[in-house]
Amino acid sequence: MYYHVANFENNLAQFTGAPYVVATDCCTHAIELCLRYDKIKKIKSLPCYTYLSIPMTLVKLRIKYQYNDKHWLGEYNFEGTRIWDSARLLHPKMYRRGKLQCLSFGNGKPLDNKRGGAILCGTAKEYKILKQMSYDGRDLKYKKWIEQKEFRVGYHYNMPFEHAEQCNKLLEQYKKKKSHLPHMADYPDCRLMKIKG
């Protein structure tokens, strides 16, 4: 069953130009894993027009941040980090060398699978650790998790194989499109939202 996830990761890597791809259950969790991996404590700024799960995640992780009022198309950078929220972008060779780019396959996204996400990354080390983090700390060289004796702290953020299989089909259809323009985002101003921690 894991074959479907690995197959999708490989196909998406080939399409985007990323050396490695980690499939996740959603973009928000992909972003969370990247923030944890890079041990981010502060974000210089991020657009106030973003999905509410982003500030929620920053509050959960106790990451200091402030907003800017920039409007964005397709993707934006968490300023002061190498992490990108690329939730509304999917085009050939989009990978930015040395960066961590998080994709979404949710409602209204370029690859609309209703749910799903991915991290584009550049090194085998990044892939291995982020993959383990996304998959309950599991090392995939073990077929059964009970055979593994030591675990990295992980989260239950892996992409289900059924979603990966469907995403693969959608990606094959998406490749045939003549245009891969970024999607517009129409989010309210998160500065108006109060989050109680």
Task: Provide structural commentary.
It is a single chain. Helix content is 30%, strand content 16%. The protein has five helices and seven strands; from the N terminus they run H-E-H-E-H-E-E-E-E-E-H-H. With 197 residues, it is of the alpha/beta class. The chain has one domain: Type I PLP-dependent aspartate aminotransferase-like (Major domain) (Aspartate Aminotransferase, domain 2).
Total domains: 1
The total strand number stands at 7
Report the CATH architecture: 3-Layer(aba) Sandwich
Tell me about the largest β-sheet.
5 strands, mixed
Overall radius of gyration: 16 Å
CATH superfamily: Type I PLP-dependent aspartate aminotransferase-like (Major domain)
SSE order, one letter for each helix or strand: HEHEHEEEEEHH
- Tell me the span between the first and last alpha carbons: 38 Å
Which helices and strands, and how do they pair?
Layout: H1 2-16, E1 20-24, H2 27-37, E2 42-47, H3 53-60, E3 64-68, E4 76-77, E5 83-85, E6 100-104, E7 117-121, H4 124-134, H5 161-175
Helix pairs in contact: 1-5, 2-4
Question: What are the defining features of this structure?
Answer:
197 residues; alpha/beta; Aspartate Aminotransferase, domain 2; 5-stranded mixed beta sheet; 7 strands; 30% helix; globular
Task: Give a quick rundown of the structure.
This protein has 197 residues and is of the alpha/beta class.
